[in-house]
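Researcher: Next sequence.
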Amino acid sequence: MSKNYSQIIRAIDKNCKSNSVSYPLLDKNEDINDASAHVWGIIFKSSGKWQFDDGNHEDYPFITSDLNENQRDYPFTTDEAGNLILDVYKVMVKNPAGIYQEIYPIDQQSDEFTQGFWSGLNQKGTPSRYDKTANAIMLDALPAYSSEDGVKMFINREGVYFDVDATTEMPGFCGLYHEYLALRPSYYYAMREGLDNKNDLFNQMTRMEQDIAQYYRDRSKDEIPVIVPETVCSI
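Model: Next structure:
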């Protein structure tokens, strides 16, 4: 059953027989947000081609940046709303005609034929490859032109955290598992306080973690699974 923030707070107090004094709202809020981050980690590792994005985001999970002539590096840390970027899935660059084309990842430290990144010759042209270093992408060729919103990155990012003033806000993942945001804080509170139900809460929490992983792993019902044969090496 889906739960809003206020219902999650009440579920925690019910699990722990706590209140706003024994388990202050600020502490509950921090533990709920920690639980949210943990759920996102489970989902990100489990989801397949149907990439997850927190439903509370107001836009889609890609960002754009102007492509600037002679600029090789394009930093990224947060999206336009300030959400932390966790991964980059795909990069596209506009060609001189203004049409987006996919460019391909390469590791300039270990792959061959990467001299364009570091030789110092600064060859100019239309980028076709990129390298991810720290929180930036590096282009193999210096752009010979500029283009507004000329770099597009498809990303994975943090979800939306709750603040203490939240009441009716809902978690941005499947409502079947909103209870997890009550279970995990309840378990850690019960463990800290030595409550008798801590083991029961732990078992409920870990079972729901497995259910979340399976749900997001299997939710792409419209995709036909492909069985890939395993290569067995014999000596």
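Model: The chain has two domains: 5-53+161-218, 62-157. The beta strands are 62-67, 73-75, 85-94, 100-105, 124-125, 129-133, 136-139, 142-143, 147-157.
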